Amino acid sequence: MTNLAKLDFVALDINGKNYLTWVVKAKIHLEAWNLGETIKEENSASSQDRAKAMIFIYRHLDEGLKSEISPQIKLCGETIIEEDMLEKTFSTFHASNMLMQQQYREQGFTEYN
Hints:
The protein has helices spanning 19-32, 47-59, 63-69, 82-91, 98-107; strands at 74-75, 78-79. The protein contains five helices and two strands, in the order αααββαα. The chain has a two-stranded antiparallel sheet. By secondary structure, the protein is mainly alpha-helical.
């Protein structure tokens, strides 16, 4: 897994001034990871793929936007909370980092860089 602190491209600005370029780059990255179907209406993507896409998109939002939309994010009819995001992050650690994954869970970390 890539470094969580490093973004693939500039996050969507809270005022939306970089929206068009952000959308194009987000679509390109999702397609490259075979997740392009997840952002289409009435898609047949798996819930796991939709979760991966949601986490990718969420990571590429301005911090101000994250705080505004977090309560509104829904996936499969359920509200996504920070603990869900962290658990998804832990579950996608590379196999060589399983010890770190366990330690993060046991220590109850609530933030990552």
